[in-house]
Amino acid sequence: MASTETQPQTEGAEGTRHTGNAVTTAEGSSAAARTATGETAAAQTAAERTAAPRTAVGAGPKSAEEAGGDLAGLEAGLDALDTRTTDRTPLPVLLRRKALPPLVAVVLVLGLWQAAFALHLKPDYQLPSPLMVWDALAEEWYKGTILGVIWQSVSRGALGFAVALLVGTPLGLLVARVRPVRAAIGPILSGLQSLPSVAWVPAAIIWFGLTDATIYAVVLLGAVPSIANGLVAGVDRIDPLHLRAGKVLGAAGLRGIRHVLLPAALPGYISGLKQGWAFSWRSLMAAELIATSPELGVGLGRLLETGRSYQDMPLVLGAILLILLVGIGIELLIFAPVERRVLRHRGLLR
């Protein structure tokens, strides 16, 4: 009887354990299912958040035609930025901008000159009228000498400037790139540039006599320092990064000077050339004015001295005007176009 009563209790306990395990298993499955469901919902929510901005900005998938159209539009915009306008300025507008201001200035100067002559501020032999000066130049024209006089001075100036260019360019490169040379010669070049060129005429006459060598020596001593200093200033403004990039690409030595150094220093170099021509022209006039000899021929400086010796003030003023016109003409016909082209190529001028 004792064993019979104990068995149902054991079976009941085991049933209870099985039932508890089943309930526990069922509860675990339900929790796992709820966890999986939550993770799936969280993933869907994250995906929706990620996709929402794309839909908002319209960055969804596009067809090949739409993508190609966008790329073509971008390329067209970049080409428009790089394209330079080639519209030519009308001739009347160009004349009004370029020719009218200097013409007005010349008319104003002539008017003031004529007014001073009419008011007799100076005697006629000291201050002739513009018409008297014109008559003096016309007389030289009728003699057939005026063109020969101008050519004599221009040819000398051009030859002297060409030689000064051949001397001043390598000298400027040497001073710019070699520090001991700059320390030794740099101050001397600056001093020579500030020295009046007329101071060299007596020394050149003693050295070379009354010959063409005297005139060319004075021109060289006046032009070479300006050309060299202009090139030195241009080299000093070059970004060192450009020079290092040139060396990396193999542009060293003479190749570096030709392809990197000189092109980069071109604006300063052109300014030095302009100043060198101005100094050479002034030096030439000083030499022709002082060094007078039949062997030297007749240039503009000699024409100016002839007018002074004969007290011919109209001829003196006429010679001064010719010297001024030649200097301005060389500047406008040669140096100004080259400088504009360089600045426009670098994007510094429209």
Could you explain the architecture of this structure?
22% of the residues are buried. The chain is mainly α and 350 residues long. The protein is globular and about 70 Å long. The chain has 14 helices and no strands. Helix 5 crosses helix 14 and helix 6 packs across helix 12.
Briefly say what this structure is:
About 80% of the residues lie in helices and about 0% in strands. Residues about 1-60 have low confidence and may be disordered. It has helices at about 1-55, 65-80, 90-100, 100-120, 130-145, 145-175, 180-195, 200-210, 210-235, 240-250, 255-265, 265-290, 300-310, 315-345.
Cα distance spanning the termini: 123 Å
Instruction: Estimate what percentage of residues fall within beta strands.
Output: under 5%
Number of DSSP helices? 14
Largest sheet properties: none
Order of helices and strands: HHHHHHHHHHHHHH
Helix content: over 70%
What is the mean predicted local confidence, pLDDT? 74
Shape: globular
Radius of gyration: 44 Å
User: Any low-confidence stretches, pLDDT <50, length ≥5?
Assistant: 1-61
Query: What structural class do the secondary elements suggest?
Result: mainly alpha
| Number of E-type strands | 0
